[in-house]
Specification:
By secondary structure, this protein is mostly helical. The protein has helices spanning about 1-20, 35-55, 65-80, 85-95, 140-145, 160-170, 175-180; strands at about 120-125, 130-135, 150, 155, 155-160, 190. The longest helix has 21 residues, at about 1-20. It is globular and about 50 Å long. It starts with a helix and ends with a strand.
Length: about 190
């Protein structure tokens, strides 16, 4: 019964958005953030519709029910408390496709300016996260971070779990090797070194 009500709400919202579009109005832009349920659902519906129409590889994702995922994400986007949480939710939704060509680019771009983005490159070698390159900074020197060292933990979480939960879930690249290449360390990291 609850699912039925969500679908009725969605159809009525999409109908009003479709009417607005047919009258020459543009869909809301990121700069026009109002945080209304209609705006949030419209963004989610846009991702769902674009993928439904153009995504070429649904047969390679037999465990993904795209329509059900959309329904599952409707209450999550509506409940998003601010624009940032809303975009993280949209990014996670698009990330279900696990495709390096399908993503949501949030208003802050690829890297949040308020996150700590250390000058550091990691590589995954035989399931270990190793520092491939790092800048010579007093902080890295103090923490013992240098080329060749293995990163075991980030923010109290083992490295693999951290990247799966905080990076690859939002920025999947379509393969584990591509995901490993993208692993960006951010948000006030504290390193667990051997």
């Amino acid at each position: 019964m609850k699912r039925h009500h969500v679908l009725i709400l969605l159809v009525s919202i999409l109908t009003s958005v479709t009417c607005a579009l047919s009258q020459g109005q543009s869909p809301p832009e990121a700069d026009d953030w109002t945080g209304t349920a209609e705006q949030k659902i419209f963004g989610l519906a846009t991702i769902w519709a674009e993928a439904k129409y153009a995504f070429p590889s649904f047969e390679q994702l037999p465990d993904l029910d795209w329509d059900q995922s959309f329904q599952d994400f409707v209450p999550r986007v509506v409940a998003a408390k601010d624009r940032d949480e809303y975009y993280w939710t949209l990014m996670e939704f698009a990330g279900l496709l696990n495709d390096g060509h399908t993503s949501v680019l949030p208003p802050w771009g690829y890297l949040r300016p308020d996150f700590d983005n250390p000058p550091l490159e990691l590589q995954v070698v035989e399931d270990s996260f190793l520092v491939a390159r790092s800048a010579d900074t007093p902080e890295f020197e103090r923490e013992g971070i240098r080329t060749g060292i293995e990163i075991l933990e980030i923010d109290g979480m083992d490295a693999r779990t951290y990247f799966e939960s905080n990076v690859n879930r939002f920025y999947p690249r379509g393969s584990s090797s591509a995901n490993h290449a993208l692993n960006i360390v951010s948000s006030g990291t504290s390193w667990g070194l051997p």
